[in-house]
Description:
This protein is an alpha/beta fold. It has two domains: 157 residues, Alpha-Beta Complex (Aspartate Aminotransferase, domain 1); 240 residues, Aspartate Aminotransferase, domain 2 (3-Layer(aba) Sandwich). It has 14 helices and 13 strands. It has a seven-stranded mixed beta sheet, sandwiched between helices. It has a four-stranded antiparallel beta sheet with strand order 9-10-13-12. The radius of gyration is 22 Å and the shape is globular.
Amino acid sequence: MKTEFRIRPSDTTRNVRYEIRGSLARRALELERLGYEITSLNIGNPGAFGFRTPEILRLAMIENLPQAEGYSHQKGIFPAREAVVLQQQERGVKGVSTDEVFIGNGVSELIDLTLRALLNQGDEVLVPAPDYPLWTAAVTLNGGSPVHYPCRPENQFCPDPEEVEALITPRTRAIVIINPNNPTGAVYPRAVLERLARIAEKHQLVVFSDEIYDGITYDGVKAVPMATLVHDTLCATMSGLSKIYRACGYRVGWVSFSGATHRAGEYLSALELLSSLRLCSNVPAQFAVQSALGGYQSILDLTNPGGRLHDSRKAIIDAVARSKYLRLARPDGALYAFVEVKPEALPHFNDSQFALELLEQRHVLITPGVSFNVPYRNHFRITNLPDSQTLVKVFAKIEAQLDDYAAKPVATSPARVVEAATRFK
């Protein structure tokens, strides 16, 4: 009998997870094909909720299309890189020139490239928990070992610098800071960031500061740029058009290097080599960067009181306050809430099982907290991109599902939960 040949994936993917677009999302798509209307709260995709990219960005692309038909420089077009430099200078970041700016196909590509240029097999990178899971995945895929430092719910999801420093070993090469944070919405205080900067300098760690949500904060809270605090080691600041400018599909992000760039020449050359291998990033959309950074910041119309994002966030906060089961560390930034199910209310709660049941029975798609590399199983993430009325309805469904969950006998074994969460893979 002939043995069937199977094509197997690379071993490097074995420990890579991205459940934001994983089995639950695939099941949601199946349900939609069956005719069910799904409220998808798993992804921070503004375009899916009716947000439009500012017109000035679209016009900049259209007007420059004749110049965008060929490859650009591997680091990106000069006007886009210059706009990033000017923004950094306005924020008080010193020593940045266009030579230290790289444009990529979104921050996602730059996370991969910057880690690939840095890591050798077994090198360690400090990553927050909860994290945006691409960081953990990219460290793993590039031969590194992610070491998660806790950002605890009881500490409003802010890291404890002493706990962070205790995790550093001779193999530690870098620290990732996501501020404002995805998935929690935490905006770190200056004092915490200053202490993390000193730790990174002391141990000569590269600082990867993911600031894609830096313009999305609420109630007067401001995000402090990490590059203004890091001086004696290398700091890589990452941002882009996706969130603040509601242009996810343009796939334009950037990384600007500051601090001890004079000691990082070989690393930056390696990064340029990798950038050259993919030729260049999306050229037409690069022409939108200058207009975005230099123009009116319309995101403030959405995040200030009376704005849609501000009101949606408030709807989430109010709904959690009314719930018998939920509590929330108030999100001060970004587009998400990392909602906790009170252990005293539902001591046997399992986030993956609940998310699957909520999808199947109430047709609401959320992301289980375990997807963000945390050890506990009593959180879930939702986005505040829907309008406030939709979110009120969503939380009514969540509360009803939690009532059903509370009424069930505690009989689901861990094996059954894993099976339930993965049966649509």
